[in-house]
From TrEMBL:
Keyword flag Transferase: yes
Protein name, entry field: Purine nucleoside phosphorylase
Function: The purine nucleoside phosphorylases catalyze the phosphorolytic breakdown of the N-glycosidic bond in the beta-(deoxy)ribonucleoside molecules, with the formation of the corresponding free purine bases and pentose-1-phosphate.
Pathway listed: Purine metabolism; purine nucleoside salvage
Keyword Transferase attached: yes
Source organism: Gelidibacter salicanalis
Superkingdom to which the source organism belongs: Bacteria
Molecular-function GO term, any one: purine-nucleoside phosphorylase activity
A single GO cellular-component term on record: cytoplasm
InterPro entries: Nucleoside_phosphorylase_d, Nucleoside_phosphorylase_sf, Purine_phosphorylase
Nucleoside phosphorylase domain residues: 21-268
UniProt cross-references to PANTHER family, sorted A to Z: METHYLTHIOADENOSINE/PURINE NUCLEOSIDE PHOSPHORYLASE, PURINE NUCLEOSIDE PHOSPHORYLASE-RELATED
Annotated GO biological process: nucleoside metabolic process
Amino acid sequence: MIKNIIKTTDYLKSKGFDKPEIGIILGTGLGQLIKEVDILHEVSYNHIPNFPTATVEFHKGKLIYGVLEGKKVIVMQGRFHIYEGYSLQDVTYPVRIMEKLGIHTLLVSNASGAINLDYKKGELMLIDDHINLQGSSPLAFKDVGQLGERFTDMSAPYDGEINSKFEAIAAANNITLRKGVYASVVGPQLETRAEYRMLKIIGADAVGMSTVPEIIVANHLKLKVAAVSVLTDECDPSNLKPVNISEIIAMAEQAEPNMIILFKELIKSL
C-alpha cells in the first residue's frame, strides 16, 4: 500500500494538487458545495493511479482541488462504499492520499436515516460518536503499523472544538442541528423493522452505510475530523413504509443549502 500511496500522491502533485489544508467528502445528494469552490484542478477517479471508481449513480467521480473561503481544499465529489464490492482499505484509500498531500482536517457529510424519532427528515445531525457495524476495520491489515499506530485510540473520534464551532454556526444561522450517534452498516439493503429496533436499543440516533471507515482512518492518521448527516427519512419500525430512494435523494438536496452554510462558515474559521 505504501508504494501505491506514493505513486498516487506523486500523480496528483503533478496535476497541481499542492498542499491542501482541508479535505471534504461529499455524501449522497450533497454535491452542490462544489459550486462554492474556486476550482483550480480536477481529476476523474478513473484517471488516478490505484484509486477506486465510484459506481453509485448519484455519486460523481471526481477529486477536486481549489480554494474555499480562503483555504486550499481537496474535495471528494463522490465516495466509496463496501456495498459496491470494495474493501475497507479501498474505501479509505482517498483519506490516506489527502493526508499525504497535506490536509490537517477532514470534513465529512452523508445522508442517513433517523433512528431517534425526535429527529425529523430534512434536519441535520452533527455526529458526536459512532457505532461500527460493518463487520471489520480499515486498520485490519498486516502492514498498518507502517502507516500509523495500529491500536488507534477512538475515545473521542470527532474533534470537540470543530463540533462546538458547528453548533455555534448553526445557532447563528437558525439552522436546526441535532447531535447524536451514527451507526454504520454494510447495506445496500435498507434495514428491517427488527434491525431499526435493535439500532435504537444500542444507542444509535441515525443509521447509514458510510463515514465510519473514513473516520477511523482519519484518527489513525491523527487528522482533526468532523461529520454531519442529513437526515433523509424517519425510521419508525411501528410505521415503516417502503423506501423511495429518489425521495431520499430529494430530501438530501433540500437540506443541502444549510449544510453548505455550515461547511463554508466553519472553513472560514479554521
